[in-house]
């Protein structure tokens, strides 16, 4: 695991997310309200916990060039973990469907690119926006609300946009993988983290790479 560039991460957090201090209780209320309004879009009733966010960010190597794309950042706990990991705000592209979350993310991470759109259809959402291959893609999308064919299409689209062997990082509360490892055997490798018991509810992180 590569070391963090702590000075850069601290500077980014000081100049960005701390402008709008993150109140965990307030963020949980936002998530709960969003879940009641759009349960199949939001997927979770609470934001990712610090340990889960840190686990997801640990699979991103900040030394690899290119943007880091986050799908479904919500109120930004994983975004914050990515910055602490050493990824500069300017490299972050946050794809969020909820307009209220988009406004909040813009305040918390003013130097990141906030892209409002459908993260499940990233080809159309991005269009010709990317000028270079992405270093990683980190997803908090509720994939189990979509059919397997659509999940596979998202994974294929993600790897088309990234460097070879770049990680597609996805967490799940389920005991089974969000995209079964047997699908497209030989096209992808799938690895998993230990279960993050300190998250509520406990979760696991899956990482998909194209060899």
Task: Walk me through this protein's architecture.
The protein has helices spanning 6-15, 24-37, 39-42, 50-57, 77-85, 99-108, 122-126, 148-160; strands at 68-71, 92-96, 113-116, 136-139, 168-172, 189-192, 204-209. The protein has 211 residues and is of the alpha/beta class. The protein has a 7-stranded mixed β-sheet, with helices on both faces. α5 links the parallel β1 and β2. The relative contact order is 0.16.
User: Secondary-structure element sequence?
Assistant: HHHHEHEHEHEHEEE
Strand content: 15-25%
Our Rg estimate from Cα atoms comes to 16 Å
As laid out across the biggest beta sheet, the strand order is 3-2-1-4-5-7-6
Largest sheet properties: 7 strands, mixed
What distance lies between the first and last C-alpha atoms, to the nearest angstrom?
19 Å
The share of residues in helices is 25-40%
Main attributes of the structure:
disordered N terminus; 211 residues; 35% helix
